[in-house]
Amino acid sequence: MEAYERMFKWRANPFTFTIMPEVFVGYSKEMAGIISGFESGNKFSLVTGPTGSGKTTFLKAAMGKLNRSEHVMYLPKPPKVSSDWITVFNPVIKYGGRFRLPFGGKVSLYNLGEKLNSSLQNRRCILLIDECHEATTESLEWLRALSDHTDNLSIVLAALPVFEDTLKEKLETFMRRISSRAELSSLSKPETREFIKKRIEFMGGDDIRPFTSSTVEYIFDKTGGFPREILRLYNSLLQKSAESGITTIDIDFLEEAGSVAAQRLSADTISSLPQKQRAVLDILKGREMTTAEITSHTALDDYKNRDIALRSANNLLKRLMDEKMVERVRCGRTYKYRLSGGAQTLMVSA
To answer: Cβ(174)–Cβ(214) under 8 Å?
Structure first.
């Protein structure tokens, strides 16, 4: 057991990256729209959001709201090889209980829809697929064709926002079949507090303790309300509190912990960065930019396609935020990045 778990009498650390659909918070309007899509018999629903916005937790929480008599499946990633859809749906065909196929025969992509219909009859199959931006065009085309020929099949796709652009450019017929959408951005300040509270209480804690309300507000401003960033920062603060034996994490503690982190930045740190990370810092000098704006810069235009460029930029920005060199700030419904105060000073002489 970790020191802070003993200090606060928790069963386990509430702030690991463990998916906890039992304490799902926020996105109530978006969730209602997706569930309504199921009930209306929509073929395709789409959930989009940037890295760390809670798409996986959203899907897992949606699963918990579905009727248990329905056949519900979750895929962490879509198959890249089209024939693997047969493997995905094999449990529906083979273990359909009273809906088991009365005939044998080899299953192929060409008769898979027919066999699913025979197995499901009046029962619904709901398939939730994560990380759909990694799917191949051929695999998605077969999924679309399968949905056209399977009566009671509903599919929810979760992906980075760039996936919608990919569909518009390459799979317009697929795009037209999407009937309901949910866009995940970030949690509001009240939702962030509830997110922290529920995770702590789920592990046996009391309200938001050991954090204060001012701490929650401060961390909301720092993370922009992105669940993954909230977890990362809270976990870091817990480790620091255990090292110092402090049982109340307030603003004074945050300022002390922040000043320690700032002291680690130096001109040598900037000059020793990999070329791409240094290029991002140069791009952000005196600017606030979205990820898409950063990737459009000529210093980052050597990637094969836009999807790869965006994923690379997100990884670069994450590393720079971990190093306290870049900050993320809210700008309407989107987020922009800028140099941290320490990095701005160092970039003048680096």
So the answer is: no
Phi and psi at 28, nearest 5°, equal -65, -40
Edge to edge, the sheet with strand 153-159 lists 71-75, 125-129, 153-159, 44-48, 178-183
Is 27-183's fold the same as 267-349's? Answer: no
Q: In which band, very low, low, confident or very high, does the pLDDT at 102 lie, cut at 50, 70 and 90?
A: very low
- Using only C-alpha atoms, the chain has a radius of gyration, in whole angstroms, of 23
Q: Residue 134: how many CB atoms within 10 A of its CB?
A: 15
Which CATH number is correct for 27-183, 1.20.1300.10, 3.40.50.300, 1.10.238.10, 3.60.40.10?
Answer: 3.40.50.300
CB atoms within 10 A of CB 138: 11
Q: Do you find a cis peptide bond into 210, omega within 30 degrees of 0?
A: yes
Spans of all domains in the chain: 27-183, 188-263, 267-349
pLDDT grade for 198, boundaries at 50, 70 and 90:
very high
pTM, 2 dp: 0.71
Lookup result for tokens 């920005």: 317
Task: State the average pLDDT over residues 270-282.
Answer: 83
CATH number given to 267-349: 1.10.10.10
Q: What is the pLDDT of residue 154?
A: 92
